Input
Amino acid sequence: MAQKPLTYKQKSGIAFIEQDDPPFIKEMKKKMGYKEPPKLEDKFEDEGPSDFDDAQTELLRMKEEDRPQVVVLDPETDLSREELNKELVHKQKEEDDKKIAEGKIVFKKPVKRHTTEDAKEDVKEKKKKEEVKQPDSRLLSFGDDEEEDE
Output
């Protein structure tokens, strides 16, 4: 007997129902320490209050010249600029480790580093290019040939 094709109404009524894993598979996953991969629904969940409201994380995101000025009145109790930078780096590292542990890894664009040596090399390369360009401008001069014939 040939089956009749489904009508549009019947096709639209079809839905996938995800069932839980059988108990023995759950037990095996638990023993192995298996962690479920993130699902599409997890991406749209509300994460709650943002961590960006913290004053220390705000300091981390500021450029160094925009940060508040550090004044050391008592060297024993006050933080110096170097100590503050070390503390901020330490906090950033802890925050990154925490995000990695939670599985919320954020990739950042690497910061370009320019040194004085690179700048000097760039200047030298530009000078070399300018020197090479000058002789090339005289290659297609037709007026010089006519003057030589006379």
Remarks:
- Helices lie at 8-12, 23-32, 40-43, 55-61, 81-102, 116-136, 143-149.
- The chain is about 50% helix and 0% strand.
- The chain has a mean pLDDT of 78.
